[in-house]
Amino acid sequence: MTTLQIAGARMHSESAGSGEPVLLLHGGFCSLESLQAQFDALARDHEVFAYERPGHGRSPDVDGEYGYARSLIEAVAYLDAHDLESVHVVGYSDGAVLALLLAMDHPERVRSVVAISANLDPSAFTDSAAGLPVLAPLPSPAGAADEPDAEREAYARFSPDGPAHADVVLAKLMRLWTTEPDIAPGDLARIGAPTLIMSADRDTIRPDHSLLIASSIPGAQLCIVPGTTHALVAERPALLTVLIGDFLDEVTASRA
């Protein structure tokens, strides 16, 4: 574990394993713990690099609003800081949006993309659908209402800004999620790297939107994970690690 000064921000960074490099990008209001299962599984066959964006996990917040353009600058600077010419990119939620942008705008830096629960714009969210069909919610497990908010609990444990700053981060994230990203489906055709689009069958991202993303990227694959929500990385970690691992093995074999 190290702390790096990246693009004017102090960010927590971790790496492990050996083999072809993988950049792991977490979701909004998440720490790297949220992707621990994927990190550990990928590190068995790859060299995994991951960092926490400003205001997330152990990285202190920065002044001003969040934006995907700013996060993209940080991602490229992070690759440069580790002398990584190109990587496989696995991103979840906000990290998945960032993975798509990285592959679009810096194709030479990306060997493959796994984008989990990405969206192109705010209209993708289930509750903004106008007459489009979605699956009924799954029954809540007994006692679920009494479970603490895992990410808020993690924020309270890790953030150098203190537990009360969580509300500041969430307010900035809500402004981000309701105004960005703004990616035209046609622009996804610029992605030339092998791509796997994943989402949950009961995601906050509508299934038709995930299909739109996959169908807009030449040769992309689509996987809808059954019986899961936007928290699919925590709900079905073993299944996701198998799917991601098989995809990366397939990409590596095709390049051999």
UniProtKB/TrEMBL annotation:
It comes from Brachybacterium huguangmaarense. The keyword Transmembrane does not apply. This is Alpha/beta hydrolase. Keywords: Hydrolase. GO terms for molecular function: hydrolase activity. Residues 22-238 form the AB hydrolase-1 domain. InterPro entries: AB_hydrolase, AB_hydrolase_1, AB_hydrolase_fold. The keyword Transit peptide does not apply.
